[in-house]
Amino acid sequence: MHRSGRASSRNPRGFATRTLVVIASVAGCSADDPPAGPTTTAAPPSTEFSTSPPPPTTTAPTTTVAPSTARLEPAPTDAATYAAEFTTAELTMRDTPADADTVADAGRRYQLLLRSLADVPELDEAVLAAVDPTVRPTLERIVRARQFLQARNAADPTPSEPPPTLPAWTIVEPEPTDTLRALYDEAERLTGVPWYWLAAIHLQETRMGRVVGVSSAGAVGPMQFLPSTWAECCTGDPTVARDAIIGAATYLAQSGGPADMQAAVHQYNPNDGYVAVVTAYAENLRDVPALYAGYHAFQVFSSTSAGTVRLPVGYAETQPIDAATYLSDHPEDAA
């Protein structure tokens, strides 16, 4: 995720999403690399993270990870195939009786489709026209958020180049869906901020807790708080999921939520692209709560000058590492 180096004392400034996948998150809306701040130059939202300029020193990769079992399957080449795959993936994600592994696989495939579609935006309208009518509203929100980011990035007179390194992060399994949903619901009871806004921010910031690391601005924890902001608004430990989620809800309530959630999210991260992506996912979860388990399965990606890299569970680095070397050792993670 791209994060600007400036940090406001009123902004938790966490990891943002990129626009490769897109949305990166925006489903990729992230996209892939989350927008970070007013000066951020995030890619179209997919749901991935991208890195900020790293410290000057780097080290050789030390991560030892097992080959990922989730294949990065080839992207479709035409609108009809995209539409068919998006339809299949989302309807599977909505199928609550489906087993958890099937839903997670569908979520990962949906994210990869968002990422690849962001690279061929000329297919957007044809894909939206061809997708199943029940799926179009949720997909369209993500695509429109990514288009917004792409237009903003295209207008940026000084776009940033991706770094040659991968970030000093640890990638872990997130808390189970039921555990996190209970925390979102508890935070909603305490503050009035709807659970789906908290889930969308959690998704955008750290892929629901997969990313353990410090942002370029110094933000920490699953909801990415600056220590100074945390001290002003919240109690407990910002690196603990329950405290962080309740803290985020508290901060949003102090910033205009739940009456004006877009204003509150903008206070959380004053970046219009970030707000667009988070809003797309939040509204999708509001309208189709069953999508939550699929979004929960989204993976972590990092943009580098050597290419986009999937960071699997087990990736663990204390210093930025050379991306090209990592890809040579882990070709299965080339995205």
Structure description:
The structure is a single chain. The protein is 43% helix and 5% strand. The longest helix is centred in the middle third of the chain and has 19 residues. The N terminus is likely disordered. With 335 residues, it is mainly α. The protein contains twelve helices and six strands. The strands form three sheets. It has a two-stranded antiparallel sheet with strand order 1-6. Strands 2-3 form a two-stranded antiparallel ribbon. Helix 1 packs antiparallel against helix 2, helix 4 runs antiparallel to helix 10 and helix 5 packs across helix 6.
Short overview:
The protein is mainly alpha-helical. Helix content is 43%, strand content 5%.
Mean pLDDT, rounded to whole units?
84
The main pleated sheet reads as: 2 strands, antiparallel
State the end-to-end CA separation. Answer: 16 Å
Walk across the major sheet and give the strand order: 1-6
N-to-C SSE series?
Answer: HHHHEEHHEHHHHHEEEH
Give the quaternary arrangement of the chains.
Answer: single chain
Instruction: Give the amount of beta strand, in percent.
Output: 5-15%
The number of distinct β-strands equals 6
Number of helices: 12
Gyration radius, to the nearest Å? 18 Å
Return residue spans where pLDDT drops below 50 for at least 5 consecutive residues: 1-58
Q: Which shape, going by the Cα principal axes?
A: globular
Helix content: 40-55%
Computed structural class: mainly alpha
